[in-house]
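Lab channel / #folding
Pinned by the channel admin:
"Please post every new chain as: sequence first, then the structure tokens as a reply. Keep commentary short and put observations after the output so the thread stays searchable."

First post following the new format, from NK:
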Amino acid sequence: MSSADAKVFVLVHPLATDTFWVQNIPQVSQDRRWRVEAFFGTEAAGRGESFEILAVATNESQVLRILRGTNLTPGTRLPTVSPYLAKSQTVTVRRRTF
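Reply from TO:
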């Protein structure tokens, strides 16, 4: 998704589960790079586990996102990623055990 108007969301998927977690809203700089604070479990849960990270984006209005179930908010749990969202490549990471 290359549109400057696109709404970008970051999802984290613990591979031990079938749930995708919506992360905080990315902060976008003037050069269109973005950063996001993402969470990989809790202090104890998730240690040593693998996670997938992906970005999804849409140009749809908020009303249409609500109707299609793609109106994402931080902390939301998703069983799947909507086919109406553009998706980045998935990156897999492993959380340290300490």
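NK: The radius of gyration is 14 Å.
TO: also worth noting, The beta strands are 7-14, 20-22, 27-28, 34-35, 50-58, 77-78, 86-87, 91-94.
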